[in-house]
C-alpha cells in the first residue's frame, strides 16, 4: 500500500512511512504520515522548538486554557 506523505505529498510505502500522532486524554488530536526525509525534518523542528535555549522565550501568550 502506498499513501502520500503529509509533508511533501510524495507517495510513500508503508515500510518506509512514519506516523506521528498527537493524543490528548487518549483522543487523537492530529495524525500525520511522513516519508523518511520529512520525518527527519519534523524531528529536527520538534527538537529545536522543545529544547530550552536563550533564543526561545516562553510567554503566557503561548498558553491556551480551555
Offer a concise description of the structure.
The protein has one helix at residues 36-50, and strands spanning 2-4, 11-13, 18-24, 27-34. It has 66 residues and is α+β, with helices and mostly antiparallel strands.
Kindly describe this structure.
The chain has 66 residues and is of the alpha+beta class. It has a domain at 2-45. Helices cover 23% and strands 32% of the residues. The protein has one helix and four strands. The chain has a two-stranded antiparallel ribbon. Strands 3-4 form a two-stranded antiparallel sheet. Strand 1 and strand 2 (11-13) form a beta hairpin. It is extended, with a radius of gyration of 15 Å. The mean pLDDT is 84.
Helices and strands, with pairings:
Blueprint: E1 2-4, E2 11-13, E3 18-24, E4 27-34, H1 36-50
Antiparallel strand pairs: 1-2, 3-4
Question: Keywords, please?
Answer:
extended, Small CPxCG-related zinc finger protein, alpha+beta, two-stranded antiparallel sheet, 4 strands, two-stranded antiparallel ribbon, DUF7569
Structural shape: extended
Could you tell me the strand content as a percent range? 25-35%
Extended strand count = 4
The largest sheet is: 2 strands, antiparallel
What's the average pLDDT?
A: 84
Radius of gyration, rounded?
15 Å
N- to C-terminal distance? 39 Å
What fraction, in percent, of the residue positions are helical? 10-25%
Strand order of the largest sheet: 1-2
Order of helices and strands: EEEEH
Number of helices, counting only DSSP H or I runs of 4 residues or more? 1
**Class of secondary structure makeup:** alpha+beta
Low-confidence stretches: none
Pfam families: DUF7569
InterPro entries: DUF7569
Protein name: Small CPxCG-related zinc finger protein
Amino acid at each position: 500500500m502506498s499513501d502520500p506523505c503529509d509533508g511533501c505529498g510524495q507517495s510513500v510505502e508503508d515500510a518506509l512511512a512514519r506516523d506521528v500522532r498527537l493524543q490528548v486524554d487518549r483522543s487523537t488530536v492530529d495524525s500525520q504520515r511522513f516519508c523518511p526525509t520529512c520525518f527527519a525534518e519534523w524531528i529536527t523542528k520538534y527538537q529545536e522548538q522543545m529544547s530550552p535555549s536563550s533564543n526561545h522565550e516562553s510567554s503566557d501568550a503561548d498558553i491556551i486554557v480551555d
